[in-house]
Specification:
single chain, alpha/beta, Rossmann fold, N-(1-d-carboxylethyl)-l-norvaline Dehydrogenase, domain 2, 2 domains, 6-stranded parallel β-sheet, 3-stranded mixed β-sheet, about 15% strand, elongated, binds nicotinamide-adenine-dinucleotide
């Protein structure tokens, strides 16, 4: 297929690479010239604007930081909607709020295009390996249409329901993750303060009812899980600022839905406290630093 791809950051660049590897023709655009150059070297065709990247393509994918960037890439004079042919589907894989998705889908529909939300989980490792999970919101026919393209970048392509439900799935999962990580950080810190070996405590939790991904794969206490970011100084992994962004999306969506998110709002403040301390780029499991004075 001929695909227009906009947003070649930590996630978008490896995703576009995988489309090329799968034999697709990929037109790329990003504001960052270096990112464009790297994709050109891998065989992509670079464009001077989103409009130029989507002229004459069969599918468009955007992978941008937040809703404001998606809006500008779609609606600018040299944006996607100005260049795309009628009938071509737009897939947005950025993590944004479900209400914006609905607004963008309406704009796209007025232009004669389907707009599908397909946020991802799996992080930069999954993007590079082509093993992302895509949570797809849109009609059944739009899902069937985008599935083969997404399969070149991911392993699990899940139809979540109507437009916006992909983002609902994504932000609800990350709401759980933000809360469980803070919970495990609290329990591991308390255990260590009360004198138990953190490895022993981690082992007990991981074979007991407290077990979760935050305890058995990403344990925030250094040394408990050798492959976790906590054991390499909280580098790599999923940044605190990205978790803060996702919890903000969850609390905003909850406000619109008039639905309480007691623990999510508290967790949001914990990651915000980390961010204002200058730890926004550390892996989000560094939230344990709020509980521990000594650093390892
Ligand atoms: P990033 O900041 O690394 O990349 C974003 C890219 O978009 C950059 O290259 C930037 O130059 C480009 N960009 C911004 N505005 C633009 C515009 N107007 N026109 C063209 N290009 C523009 O972000 P990322 O880590 O690749 O994340 C992208 C999205 O995926 C975010 O919504 C993020 O929440 C989500 N996500 C990230 C991860 C992760 O682990 N990094 C995991 C899951 C989901």
């Amino acid at each position: 297929m001929k695909i227009g791809f906009i947003g070649l950051g930590n996630m978008g660049a490896p995703m576009a690479h995988n489309l090329l590897k799968a034999g697709h023709t990929v037109n790329v655009f990003d504001l960052n010239a270096e990112a464009l150059k790297a994709l050109a070297e891998a065989g992509a065709k670079t464009a001077a604007s989103p409009k130029a990247a989507v002229t004459d393509v069969e599918c468009v994918i955007t992978m941008l930081p937040a809703a404001a960037h998606v809006r500008s890439v779609l609606t600018a004079d040299d944006g996607v909607l100005a260049g795309i042919a009628k009938g071509v589907t737009i897939i947005d894989s950025s993590t944004i709020d479900p209400a914006s998705v609905k607004a963008f889908a309406e704009l796209a529909a007025r232009n004669g295009n389907a707009f599908v939300d397909a946020p991802v989980s799996g992080g930069t490792g999954g993007a590079a390996a082509g093993t992302l999970t895509f949570m797809v919101g849109g009609s059944a026919s739009a899902y069937e249409q985008v599935k083969p393209v997404l399969s070149a970048m991911g392993k699990n392509i899940v139809h979540c329901g109507d437009t916006g439900t992909g983002q609902v799935a994504k932000i609800c999962n990350n709401l759980v993750l933000g809360i469980t990580m803070a919970g495990v950080a609290e329990a591991m810190s308390l255990g260590a303060a009360l004198g138990i070996d953190p490895k022993v405590l981690g082992g007990i939790i991981n074979t007991s009812t407290g077990r979760c991904w935050s305890s058995d794969t990403y344990n925030p206490f250094p040394g408990v899980i050798e492959t976790a970011p906590s054991t390499r100084g909280y580098t790599g992994g999923f940044g605190t600022d990205l978790m803060l962004k996702d919890l903000g999306l969850a609390t905003d969506a909850a406000r619109l839905a008039r639905q309480p998110v007691y623990l999510g709002a508290l967790a949001q403040q914990l990651y915000q406290a980390m961010s204002v301390k200058g730890a926004g780029r550390l892996d989000f499991s560094a939230v344990i630093k709020l509980y521990r004075t000594e650093e390892s």
